[in-house]
Each structure stands twice: as structure tokens, then as C-alpha cells.
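Need C-alpha cells for this chain, all 398 residues.
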Amino acid sequence: MNLQIRNLYNKAQKQQRLIIGLMSGTSMDGLDIALCAVSGSGAETDIKILEFKTGAYTDDFRSKIKAIFSKKLVDLELVCLMNEHIANTHAQLINEALNEWGYKNDQVDFIASHGQTIFHAPKSLHKLPDYPNGTLQIGDGDHVAVKTGIITLSDFRQKHLAAGGEGAPLAVYGDYLIFSKRDEDRVMLNIGGIANFTYLPGNLKASEIFSTDVGPGNTLMDQFMQYHYNQFYDKNGAVAKSGSLNETLLKGLLNCDFFDMAFPKTTGPELFNLDYLQNAQSQTATLDIKLEDVMATLCHFSAQTISDAVKRCFGEDAKVQIFMSGGGMHNPLLVDLLKKKLPNSNFFTTDDLNINPDAKEAVLFAVLANETLCGQAIDFGDRQGVPSICMGKISLPS
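Here are the C-alpha cells for all 398 residues:
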């Protein structure tokens, strides 16, 4: 047997495994690195976050990603080069984090790398009858494995596509294993660049679970702040708080076929971007309103689409336990609007379930890797968009 395969087998057999989960989302603020201790698999999974940090991206690195991100026309040579460059940068950030935490690389069993999404193209967006759903994440796993010396699982979303899904959201697989609780219906709401949620029924039946994108979370607000204010995001919702909701613009923003589509569904900044905002403003004659009023309206837009989706699933008087994660949970205006729009629901964060909400997505990829290595595909029945699969390609360090 190849020694690398034997090493993989032996590590997968360990009672407890150290797995680094990685996430670099559409906000591109940095690389979330979660060092997790994982034992068991499936319903018996036990996971603890030992260390967590966000490895900051330099402005130059972020600008290189943005040059190929969510655009139909890009420099193909740069895409080719960034596939390696992103992986090498992620590996460097991992090595630096391990050194900072006092761990040697050979103490870590596996890395679970999401990579960097540069384009997401479900059929509902590209509308090309001869083509399937598509998504592309770069930052090749082989480079991460070689540069860190750690077995790496990556490119998780392609199996989801191959099995009939849209490549997103993947949170349902980890949410079910980590956060389900008997006799309590839960909604795991992640407000990242795009907002999505997973429904976890209290009867614990995997066949009743579903996960869906619902619309923009932070992406439009972040893009607007970066373009008009040269700030990465609206800290504490300060700019939005200083403005006023423009009802006319809000109606224009809500006028989109995506919101009428059945669940589950996926989307991305390929749809919800500054061009989308510009078109809505042109159609509603609101191009001249104050910048702070635009920000206030964008915040209301995110809150409206999230709350509408929850009500669509659970009724107008939705009474559910909502556990938040993602950058949007740090926006007090957005959270306050959600609470007002869903007055019968209770709001928490995943911190209340002993998982750092900022680390949650990185942790979920560690869980996906663990299931591929040590578990088996969860039977979700015939749930549309939730194929019963294990995900992740395995890269050996030598």
C-alpha cells in the first residue's frame, strides 16, 4: 500500500482527529481558520473549536481576487494563476496560525478547504437550456497539502452539483449533525454575503430538513460601502442608521423573479450587485436620493427578504428558534429589523450552542471532511437540492 494512503487510513481510524476547517466567503475579508478536535461521525459527531482566527488578506491580494470575482468576462490567465496563488496564500496563513497557536503541522490530521468562490451559476441565473448548474471555487487543494504537509480535502461543491444539487448551500450537512435537537424546531440563519438558512425539525428526521439561500445578506451593503465610502463594511450599521428607508426603492429591489422561486434555491453576487441596485434605482427614479438613505434601504432589503422567507416557510406568525451566524449578525440595525419583522420568533447566535458564530462556516467544512473520511452519506431521502452524498477531493502532501 502507498505510504500516503496508509497514513490517510491510520489518521481516519483515530479516536479523535484534529481538522482545520477553512472558509473564504464572498465578503473576502480574510481566511477563517478553525482548528477543531473531532471525534465520532454522523449523529455521534462531537466537535470542539480549539483555536480560531481570521487570517487577514492584504488589499493587494483582495483586489486580485476581485478582478476575477463574479464577472462573466475576466482575464483567463489571471484565473489560472490565482488558482495557485490563492492556495499558496491560504497555506501560508495556515502555517502562520499554527505557529501562533503553538502547534506543529504534523499534529494536524486534515485540512478542509472551501477555496474561494469566483463564480456561481445555477440554472436559474444563467438560463442556458443546454448547460447544467455550475459553480467554481479556486485555490487548489494539492498546493495547500504540499505547502502545509497536511492531507487536504477540497472542492466540496462539485460533488453536490454532480449529484443533482446547485453546489450550495452546503450548511445543511453540518447543521444537521451539530445543531439538531429533539423536540425543538430550529432555523440556522447565516447572514454572510448571501443570507441562507437551514431548517432542523425537532423530530430529527433528515428527510424533512432543507436549506436554501434567501437573498442578499451583506453583499449589497458591503459593495455600496466599498464603492462610495471606501470602507469595507458599514460598522455597527452606522451609515444605514443615519439614513431613512426609501419605500419606493425597496419595492424596486424586491421586484425580482428570484424571490418568487420555490425553495430550495441558490444565488450570489452574480445577481445581487451594484448593477442590480443601479437598475432598481433607475426603474424607481431614486438615483438622486442620499447615500445614507440608500444604505438604510439596502439594510431593510436584506431584513425583508430574510423575514419573508421565514414567513413563507413557517407562516406569518412564525414561531421558531433562530440561531444566527455570519457577519450580518454584527449589524445591530439588521438584527433589530429582523426581530421586529419576526416578533414571535426567538433570536440567538450559535454561541448559545457553543460554536463561535464567526467560525461556524469553517467548522462546517471540518465536519464535511470528517464525514467523508470517517462517516457515510446522510440519508436525506428525496429532498430536492439535498443529495445524500459525501463531499471533498483528497490531496496528499507527497
